[in-house]
Amino acid sequence: KDMQFNPNFVYLTNSEDIAGFLFYDFSKARIFTNSRDIPVAKKSWAKPHLTENGTLEKLIKNKRIGIDKSTLYADTYDELRKSKAKLVDITKYLENARIQKTKYEINCIKEACRIAGKVFGKVVNQWHSLSETGFKGVIEYEMHRCGVEPSFPTIVATGRNIAVPHHRPTSQKIRLPLLIDFGVRYKNYISDVTRTIGSNWESTIERILDELYPKVKPGMKAKELDLFVRRALGKSEKLF
């Protein structure tokens, strides 16, 4: 079973986020949800059912049921236990199934990255006279014009705010350097891009990245790339 806002649920149902459960008994797949989300559930490959009629409870009673415990609400977990079903956490198996991406998934991710690049190209010079929140609005408006939504709340940071990893944009007027952290969601696959404007470090970072990218190979460990960047920064490694 999977819960709302769960990538495992979205992956297995090929649907949008739904407040409900996916139930699969190795014969057929069913989505149990409320009447409001039935129209969305109908777009999935699994047949939608209302949760109000007690069908789900009857199906799992006294059975061994795999659950995605990572996003299961505590009160929902307690309700499932009342059915006297034996609940087994299969979260890691669901996530392992998503590790290796198909060509379709890779193409979706590439398109999400392409759109993000297009958005950045449109807004890169539109920050003048704006506040952080104002420029955030400009960026997200451009996303909507491209037919996509943000994959997470867009971060716009200026001055000392850049040092805050997940800064929430404020009414502070923008002055350089400026940092933008944003991404778009395309067919449930996302991009995540961080760019700086007017930073004295840009040429150094671009040089290191140009040296780094050819070294990225399948099967290598992330810490190898981390170590390369730290060494390339030399005396500035303490700022990494």
* Strands, count: 11
Distance between the termini: 41 Å
Kindly report the spatial arrangement of strands forming the biggest sheet: 1-2-3
Range of strand content: 15-25%
Rg: 23 Å
User: What assembly state would you assign to the polypeptide chains in this entry?
Assistant: single chain
Task: Provide a count of the helices.
Answer: 9
Question: Spans of 5+ residues with little confidence (pLDDT < 50)?
Answer: none
Mean pLDDT: 91
Q: What can be said about the biggest beta sheet? A: 3 strands, mixed
Q: Output the helix-strand order.
A: HEEHEHEHEHHHEEEEEEHH
Shape: elongated
Helical residue percent?
25-40%
How would you sum up this structure, described in words?
With 240 residues, this protein is α+β, with helices and mostly antiparallel strands. It is 38% helix and 18% strand. A three-stranded mixed beta sheet has the order 1-2-3, with helices on one face. The protein has a three-stranded antiparallel beta sheet with strand order 6-9-10. A hairpin with a 4-residue loop joins β1 and β2 (29-33). The longest helix is centred in the middle third of the chain and has 21 residues, at 103-123. It is elongated, with a radius of gyration of 23 Å.
